């Protein structure tokens, strides 16, 4: 029941990894590397915020990778046909919101189980995009496209601000806004939420739309790091995001997830890959070690077992 | 009390919808394609559903308890390579290897069981962890590149043979299906599993051994994945670390579409089997109609929603419920019909737009089916342009289809459906020679001209191999270019595609050999995978530059990896050269800016052109048995060496010539 | 006759997929009145309250609240009209704190975006104080015991400042102290002119506080009388349609050997310490105490639900019980307190629920014999007079009291040697209650050793040979049947003579 234990376990794993890196490698903690690491994992972090809310309500969204790809392509198509870049960005975000809202509609109002609905949209959107682009990349982007025409460091700053704002505001909102509490309440007990006058359907619809929007936004920020846009980006993104959120301690049955846990989960999973390269470990073993570390990070949960009886019946 | 003796198989709404949709699929596909409703084809469908079916069957009880097992696909991979390695490298007898492999499967299941059932850890995360762990171990012990082939024919019978003209593995599947059906729907254990799914705590209070039963089904799921792996190895004739990738998601799709709830308690095996058949028949039918494989995805997605939504109409209209109950089945059937009609219209449109050009021009146009390794790959996209040009020139119908990403078994499946459809020539870019050769031989027996391109199959499985440039030639060219840039000494790194991609692994091997032989002062610092993802290649290159400051050259050998690596170098402002194997269009900016020195490539346009042209020539028997040259349309006269048609040396593309190339 | 009508319902009907739950209920509630609604299990009481609160829609009939005709009713609308309810089944958010659970149902519709945590905690503390319970508002609702959940529900309803307050068995799990406090609150509301509907199967309570009593039977209003005009016997006859001979059918049984004994049992995880007692075959040992005094915790420990190092002596032999399965294997049964979470699998059928702890008996070679199982189910449904069409309906479609009977049937089916009953008659109507009591006595006569945990003192006093009184997670003292009185038990439970109770007894 207590998410702090998972967070402590995660933190411990991360610290252990960091110590190992500090001891065995040079350069991992250089500003340049941290910046690169941050930028590469920015989409995962942003979408994880949305995914955490989706999981909080007891649902799941596996279509984020496809939405990410579509938004990237939309962004590129718009920009390459002369639409101002900021407007293309907005359009791409809007497309993200729209696709998220489609998911939300199917799940909240048509009442299709979220795993089926988003599985369907994941496959359909991804293959639809493939059909449309026939795999070709988008090129011929205008000069001011890369980094929104800013300097590289200026753009990085912008991204940092965006990520901090999104995670921070969401964390605060989940704790202190009526809306945020409604999300938690919906996931905790859907029937009780309805009885308490919370419009659970709107809540579910909302979190899917927001998640779509975040996928769109991260696609925009990610695509302007380059000067051409591949049409198959974001493959497997959903799994990375869900893994991060789940490792961060979110219960898939809903009602329990923390932002701290999610951020730690994203940090752990996004560091592993590059850490292994820095440690000089052969790439063939990368997946095995990654899996092992996930298992170790959740092992702290076994402590929970010891306490559960206690919490259920003893007054605090 | 008569009614209690009736078997308790009540179809739920969604299952009625599935039955209806399945029936309609069958009816419409058999109208559209005469080859569909034949015994051979139906058996082929079954054969291809067995591996997935085994996993779906094993996963159903797990989902019913409210758990999940994402590691089954990876377990398939691990068991397959254990089996292959034990047989070939440890020289164990086949049965010994089999036992060892199944043991490994059980072990995989046991780890999940221990962590989930006895340590009470959440199934999703644990199996996400083992999903990565098992695949990682499989890649680690094979270095991702070993692929074990050459099994004795007795063993291959299991996956490729027939008994009473029913594929043998279907019996394995039926056996396990019955076993699971009894376990889940008849036994005490099954009853307990449902109780656990609804309310695990309540089941514990009722004295049910919750942990033991949970452990049992996770353990069984590992064991069944092991069986699936063996069947799969025998079916493909090869064992490799990437077998079974993505199976977990497909199996779960089949299960949830069959009405099993991921929250536990609801669902049954029959639904999973229905869901599986629904998906497999859809896929097979669309292949037979030669609908592009993207259409399969789009349609699957739409149908998934349509079927589930049809079921939900059920409780949405309580006012209508009485009338609805009476009309339920016909209405469901009608809804299913609408959906499938929609599907067929879509496919029909696609087909008619394709064949419009020459529909009127005479009796029957030859059909040339060309398969790339992966449809989305930029090489193959540019090859397709050439192929279409040739098809137009020759007035033949072109089917251009392939897996959307690298997938050996999908290639087999497509070739099967082309055989059933009766095309004139099949031209395949072989992903894995061990696995596809059997089915290609079968195509030849059906008097279909079989050619290979990009990579070869077993020589006796095809008529000609279109040799655009051997892996060795490409690797040598790359190594020589690299040596030229490094002046023959210094460190370099390779960014490859997926670690288990066969082509890339060959190139890496030849590059290593060439360097060792000719340029002893050059040293390969590391090989990192990019998974054919531009962004990942970008990050990997950034890491290379930081971790190996002495690396002065990056060889990127996957099309999206070259621009990724180049962008990383460009952004860091470092002085690292990038060369590789990619397409001119996506590398042009970097070649102009001087980050990328050279890319090596065969002329993909010409290659695409040749696939169709040579396919047509062969199918029309226009190549004399021992000809040494052949005239191939705009490519002029090409040399034939043995059974290989030689296209020429790899092109070296650099600042000087890139602007003349448009692919 | 009351002057100002708050609620008027006439000819309300409601059916669920073929089950006619209400077949024409008429009901009136006036300002400042406590109107009791009584009836057997499955008579339709809860269904009626749920219609008034807007959780269900009536099929036909008229509903008027505060003079307003109601056509399309929703929970929000009901709340806006001043209707609040304590539901029979607590409906809480397990992941949220007590304070938030209370606040979410009260703040609805208030303007503003943000949450005022300080106010929430203060409000919760105040409400809980008014209910007379010292419950930390920062605790997660998922960690509350059943009785504590019930208290949170009461606090929610009290805070709503309703004009109409519906209370569906609010006291089913509460001990006398909390009940008294609740009655004091009800008195206060009566002064303020709140109309209250009070549903309970504890007839003493009804006679104590009700002004009027409406009796439902089989979904119909049978009678509506002034409380002063009916006595207990008459009420029972109205409800059940026959009179009941004795209330507590306790008979003396010759006691056998000691069946279960514990010496100095400690379970630090659940806070239990130094518990020693023994039960003989045929003996009924009562367990009394306040909410949270450790009775349920002891039951869980004995049944292997919480591992514990102290040995337990079964028939004189020390054993260690690590899981419920083991406990059942040794002939022990445990009817848990929380029937929705633990006692039943609500989504499964009655016969499946009943056979769940004794699957071996209805199966051969590991295969469940459906026919045998169904027959067994039907048998118990008949025997315990469970109100259900067949044994193949889902348990969740039954009324609360009938669910309780199904939960009990499961343990009857294992033919236990030792039976632990945790609030066995919660929510059960008088008729069935004496049937259950009869079953308990019969079990004792067959030589089963019985531990009876109950918050209803008359039940403990009437049924048990000895009574162990719990305080602070240990046994404070054991009283023999003859020497036990309500006051004596309460004195032990509080550790001192309870001032409230003395006051009450003097009055
Ligand atoms: N969701 C449902 N589906 C089917 N039948 C139901 C449902 N809810 C209630 N019923 C039936 O309606 C009848 C009345 O139930 P209700 O809960 O109102 O009884 P009650 O008077 O509150 O009984 P108790 O004293 O046991 O709580 C019962 O026979 C019950 O089986
Ligand atoms: Mg009731």
Account of the protein in words:
The complex is a heterotrimer of chains A (316), B (663) and C (507). Chain A has helices at residues 3-24, 31-56, 64-80, 85-109, 114-133, 152-176, 178-188, 190-195, 200-223, 237-247, 259-278, 286-299, 302-313. Chain A is mainly α and 316 residues long. Chain A has one domain: ABC transporter involved in vitamin B12 uptake, BtuC (Orthogonal Bundle), CATH 1.10.3470. Chain A contains 13 helices and no strands. Chain B has 663 residues and is α/β, with parallel strands linked by helices. Chain B folds into four domains: 1-37 and 258-351, no CATH class; 51-244, no CATH class; 367-468 and 605-648, Rossmann fold (3-Layer(aba) Sandwich), CATH 3.40.50.2300; 471-601, Response regulator (Rossmann fold, 3-Layer(aba) Sandwich), CATH 3.40.50. Chain B is built from 23 helices and 18 strands. In chain B, the strands form four sheets. In chain B, strands 6-5-7-8-9-17-16-15 form an eight-stranded mixed sheet, with helices on both faces. Chain B is globular and about 75 Å long. By secondary structure, chain C is of the alpha/beta class. Chain C folds into three domains: 5-240, Rossmann fold (3-Layer(aba) Sandwich), CATH 3.40.50.300; 253-331 and 416-507, Rossmann fold, CATH 3.40.50.300; 342-415, no CATH class. Chain C has 18 helices and 22 strands. Chain C has helices at 45-52, 75-80, 98-106, 117-131, 146-159, 176-192, 203-209, 232-240, 295-302, 324-329, 339-343, 350-355, 370-383, 400-412, 430-445, 457-463, 486-494, 499-506, and strands at 5-16, 19-30, 34-39, 60-65, 68-69, 83-86, 164-168, 195-199, 212-217, 220-226, 258-267, 272-280, 284-289, 312-314, 317-319, 332-335, 363-364, 367-368, 418-422, 449-453, 466-471, 474-480. In chain C, the strands form five sheets. Chain C has a six-stranded mixed sheet with strand order 6-7-8-3-9-10, with helices on both faces. A six-stranded mixed sheet of chain C has the order 16-19-20-13-21-22, with helices on both faces. Chain C has a four-stranded antiparallel sheet with strand order 2-1-4-5, with helices on one face. The chains are: A mainly alpha (316), B alpha/beta (663), C alpha/beta (507). Chains in contact: A-B, A-C, B-C. The interface between A and B is large, with 75 and 79 residues. The structure holds adenosine-5'-triphosphate (ATP) and magnesium ion.
């Amino acid at each position: 029941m207590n998410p702090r234990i998972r967070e402590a376990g995660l933190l411990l794993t991360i610290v252990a990894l960091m110590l190992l890196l500090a001891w065995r490698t040079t350069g991992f903690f250089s500003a340049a590397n941290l910046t690169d690491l941050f930028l590469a994992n920015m989409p995962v972090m942003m979408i994880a915020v949305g995914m955490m809310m989706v999981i909080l309500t007891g649902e799941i969204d596996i279509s984020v990778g496809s939405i990410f790809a579509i938004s990237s392509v939309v962004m590129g198509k718009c920009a390459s046909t002369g639409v101002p870049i900021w407007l293309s960005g907005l359009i791409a975000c809007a497309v993200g919101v729209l696709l998220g809202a489609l998911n939300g509609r199917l799940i909240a109002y048509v009442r299709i189980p979220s795993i089926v609905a988003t599985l369907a949209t994941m496959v359909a959107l991804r293959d639809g995009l493939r059909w449309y682009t026939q795999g070709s990349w988008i090129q011929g982007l205008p000069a001011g496209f890369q980094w929104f025409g800013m300097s590289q460091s200026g753009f990085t700053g912008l991204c940092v601000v965006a990520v901090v704002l999104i995670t921070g505001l969401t964390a605060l909102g989940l704790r202190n806004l009526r809306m945020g509490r409604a999300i938690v309440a919906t996931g905790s007990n859907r029937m009780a939420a309805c009885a308490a006058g919370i419009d659970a359907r709107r809540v579910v619809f909302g979190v899917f739309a927001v998640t779509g929007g975040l996928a769109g936004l991260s696609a925009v920020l990610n695509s302007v790091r380059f000067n051409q846009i591949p049409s198959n980006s974001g493959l497997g993104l959903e799994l990375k995001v869900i893994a991060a959120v789940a490792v961060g301690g979110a219960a898939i049955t809903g009602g329990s997830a923390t932002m701290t846990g999610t951020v730690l989960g994203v940090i752990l999973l996004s560091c592993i890959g590059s850490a292994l390269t820095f440690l000089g470990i052969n790439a063939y073993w990368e997946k095995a070690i990654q899996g092992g570390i996930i298992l170790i990070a959740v092992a702290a949960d076994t402590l929970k077992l010891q306490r559960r009886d206690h919490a259920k019946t003893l007054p605090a | 009390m008569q009614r209690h003796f009736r078997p308790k198989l009540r179809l739920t709404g969604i299952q009625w919808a599935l039955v209806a949709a399945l029936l309609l699929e069958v009816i419409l596909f058999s109208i559209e394609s005469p080859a569909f409703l034949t015994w051979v084809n139906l058996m082929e469908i079954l054969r291809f559903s067995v591996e997935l079916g085994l996993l779906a069957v094993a996963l159903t009880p797990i989902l019913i308890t409210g758990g999940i097992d994402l590691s089954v696909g990876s377990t398939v991979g691990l068991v397959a390579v254990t089996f292959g390695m034990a047989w070939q490298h440890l020289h164990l007898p086949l049965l010994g290897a089999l036992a060892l492999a199944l043991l490994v499967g059980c072990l995989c299941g046991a780890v999940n069981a221990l962590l989930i059932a006895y340590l009470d850890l959440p199934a999703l995360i644990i199996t996400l962890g083992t999903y990565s762990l098992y695949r990682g171990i499989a890649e680690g012990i094979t270095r991702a590149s070993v692929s074990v082939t050459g099994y004795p024919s007795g063993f291959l019978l299991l996956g490729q043979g027939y008994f009473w003209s029913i594929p043998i593995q279907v019996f394995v599947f039926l056996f396990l299906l019955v076993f699971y059906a009894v376990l889940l729907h008849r036994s005490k254990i099954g009853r307990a599993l449902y109780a656990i799914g609804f309310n695990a705590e309540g089941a514990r209070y009722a004295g049910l051994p919750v942990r033991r039963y949970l452990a049992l089904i996770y353990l069984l799921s590992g064991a069944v994945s092991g069986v699936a792996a063996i069947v799969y190895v025998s079916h493909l004739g090869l064992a490799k670390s990437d077998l079974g990738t993505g199976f977990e998601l497909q199996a779960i799709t089949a299960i949830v579409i069959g009405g099993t709830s991921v929250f536990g308690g609801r669902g049954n095996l029959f639904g999973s089997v229905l869901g599986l058949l629904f998906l497999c028949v859809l896929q097979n039918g669309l292949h037979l109609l030669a609908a592009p494989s993207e259409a399969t995805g789009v349609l699957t997605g739409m149908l998934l929603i349509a079927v589930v939504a049809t079921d939900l109409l059920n409780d949405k209209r309580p006012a209508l419920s009485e009338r609805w109950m009476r009309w339920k089945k016909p209405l469901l059937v009608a809804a299913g019909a609408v959906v499938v009609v929609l599907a067929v219209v879509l496919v029909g449109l696609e087909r008619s737009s394709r064949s419009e050009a020459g529909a009127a021009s005479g009796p029957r146009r030859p059909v040339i089916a060309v398969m790339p390794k992966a449809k989305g790959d930029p090489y193959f996209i540019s090859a397709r342009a050439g192929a279409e040009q040739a098809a137009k020139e020759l007035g033949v119908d072109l089917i251009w289809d392939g897996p959307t990403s690298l997938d050996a078994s999908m290639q087999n499946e497509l070739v099967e459906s082309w055989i059933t459809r009766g095309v004139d020539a099949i031209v395949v870019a072989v992903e894995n020679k061990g696995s596809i050769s059997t089915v290609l031989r079968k195509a030849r027996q059906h008097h279909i001209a079989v050619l290979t391109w990009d990579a070869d199959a077993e020589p006796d499985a095809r008529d000609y191999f279109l040799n655009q440039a051997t892996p060795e030639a490409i690797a040598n060219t790359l190594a020589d270019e690299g040596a030229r840039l490094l002046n023959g000494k210094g460190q370099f790194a390779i960014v490859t595609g997926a670690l288990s991609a066969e082509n890339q692994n060959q190139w890496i091997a030849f590059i290593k050999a060439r360097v060792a032989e000719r340029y002893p002062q050059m040293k390969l610092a590391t090989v990192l995978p990019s998974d054919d993802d531009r962004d990942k290649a970008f990050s990997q290159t950034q890491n290379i530059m930081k971790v190996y400051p002495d690396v002065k050259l990056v060889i990127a050998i996957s099309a999206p990896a070259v621009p990724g690596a180049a962008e990383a170098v460009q952004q860091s402002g470092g002085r690292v050269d990038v060369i590789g194997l990619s397409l001119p269009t996506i590398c042009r900016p970097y070649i102009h800016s001087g980050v990328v020195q050279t890319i090596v490539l065969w002329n993909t346009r010409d290659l695409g052109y040749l696939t169709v042209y040579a396919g047509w020539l062969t199918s029309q028997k226009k190549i004399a048995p021992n000809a040494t040259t052949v005239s191939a349309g705009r490519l002029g006269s090409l040399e034939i060496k043995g059974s290989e048609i030689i296209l020429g040396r790899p092109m070296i593309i650099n600042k000087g010539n890139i602007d003349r190339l448009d692919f | 006759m009351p002057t100002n009508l708050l609620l008027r319902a006439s000819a309300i009907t409601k059916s669920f997929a073929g089950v006619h739950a209400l077949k024409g209920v008429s009901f009136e509630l006036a300002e400042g009145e406590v109107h009791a609604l009584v009836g057997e299990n499955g008579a339709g009481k809860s269904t009626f309250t749920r219609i008034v609160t807007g959780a269900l829609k009536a099929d036909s009939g008229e509903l008027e609240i505060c003079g307003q005709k109601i056509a399309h009713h929703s929970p929000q609308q009901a709340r806006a009209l001043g209707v609040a309810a304590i539901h029979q089944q607590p409906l809480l958010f397990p992941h949220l704190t007590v304070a938030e659970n209370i606040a979410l149902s009260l703040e609805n519709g208030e303007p503003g975006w943000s949450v005022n945590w300080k106010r929430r905690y203060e409000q919760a503390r105040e409400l809980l104080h008014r209910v007379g319970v010292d419950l930390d508002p920062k605790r997660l609702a998922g960690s509350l015991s059943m009785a504590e959940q019930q208290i949170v529900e009461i606090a929610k309803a009290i805070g709503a400042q309703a004009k109409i307050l519906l209370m569906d068995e609010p006291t089913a799990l509460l001990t006398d102290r909390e009940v008294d406090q609740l009655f004091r609150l009800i008195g206060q509301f009566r002064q303020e002119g709140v109309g209250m509907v009070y549903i309970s199967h504890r007839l003493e309570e009804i006679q104590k506080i009700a002004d009027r009593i409406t009796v439902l039977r089989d979904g119909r209003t049978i009678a509506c009388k002034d409380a002063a005009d009916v006595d207990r016997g008459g009420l029972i006859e109205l409800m059940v349609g026959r009179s009941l001979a004795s209330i507590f059918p306790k008979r003396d049984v010759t006691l056998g050997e000691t069946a279960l004994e514990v010496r100095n049992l400690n379970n630090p995880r659940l806070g239990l310490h130094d518990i020693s007692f023994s039960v003989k075959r045929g003996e009924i040992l009562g367990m009394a105490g306040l909410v949270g005094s450790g009775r349920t915790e002891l039951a869980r420990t004995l049944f292997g639900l919480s591992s514990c190092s102290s040995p337990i002596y079964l028939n004189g032999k020390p054993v260690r019980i690590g899981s419920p399965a083991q406990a059942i294997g040794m002939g022990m049964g445990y009817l848990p307190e929380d029937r929705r979470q633990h006692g039943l699998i609500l989504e499964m059928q009655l016969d499946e629920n009943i056979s769940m702890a004794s699957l071996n008996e209805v199966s051969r070679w590991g295969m469940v014999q459906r026919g045998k199982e169904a027959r067994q189910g039907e048998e118990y449904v008949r025997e315990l007079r469970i109100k259900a069409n067949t044994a193949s309906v889902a348990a969740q479609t039954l009324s609360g009291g009938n669910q309780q009977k199904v939960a009990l049937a499961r343990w009857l089916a294992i033919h236990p040697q030792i039976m632990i009953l945790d609030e066995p008659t919660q929510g059960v109507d008088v008729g069935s209650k004496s049937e259950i009591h009869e079953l308990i006595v019969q079990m004792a006569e067959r030589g089963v050793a019985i531990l009876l945990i109950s918050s209803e003192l008359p039940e403990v006093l009437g049924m048990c040979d000895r009574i162990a009184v719990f305080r602070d997670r240990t046994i404070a003292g054991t009283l023999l049947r003859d020497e036990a009185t309500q006051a004596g038990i309460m004195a032990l439970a509080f550790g001192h003579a309870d001032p409230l109770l003395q006051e009450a007894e003097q009055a």
